[in-house]
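Quick start: read one record
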Amino acid sequence: MPHRAHRESSPRTVILAVVPMIGLAPASVFGVLAVFSLAMLATTAWLPAAPILAPAASDAAAASATAFSPGSRRVTIAGFALLACFALWAVSEDSLWAMAGVMGAEQAALTPEGLGLALSGATAGGILGAILITVVGDRFGRALPLAILLAAGGILKIVESTVTDPTAFIVVFIVWNTIYAVAFLYFVSTAAALDADGRWSGPLLAVYLVGSALTPVIGAALVEAFGFQGFGIVLGIASFALITPVVLVARFSREAQAAEAATDAAAASPTSADAADAQEVRA
């Protein structure tokens, strides 16, 4: 389901690319947000209606549906675990975004023009990452990609906090943000797999927004306490610590998605009783 997450995050990526081109005045920023909101509202009529499943299903499918139903305890625990992991991950990622300008200027002698190049390149990397995940789709599941992305992101955050060359700083920042964008989409697709109606993907995005709002304060406090290198190490450790719980939730989401598909197939196929009735009618 990463393709679904790509559709959800594409407007965000476009907004990040458009706003710097027209200026950062409040009227420009909120004007762009308003235009995109109206455009998205106009397209809601194209969304498909939720499927209505027939009550006829096999006992095995019914038991599986009960175990993985959106309101079951297992799904609820997995959903809250995903929210907690995503909150910590979002804070660790966006703290680097918040402190990139200061860290680049003081540690790598990054000029304002260089910072602009890094931010533009990071946005382009995010777009390329979204395109890549659309091509790959669900081919590798969600657990393995998330484990690789979290590990790579943690390493790059540590590397970013140690480089002193401005060119290296820009390159590492762009690569890190590309990985960050792809991981973001996998997080959203995992939440969507737990409940296709948005019970967890909605709060997931809300958690991200709250975490992003706090990252300038958190990032500045970490830099003051540990310095730039210590700051990067703390952010990297946060990514490494999240690998195991995130992988477990991603695997569970895969099982939930498979159970939902099996239930849909069982509900769509006629039962033996229905087949017998049909045979009697034909006879």
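The chain has nine helices and no strands.
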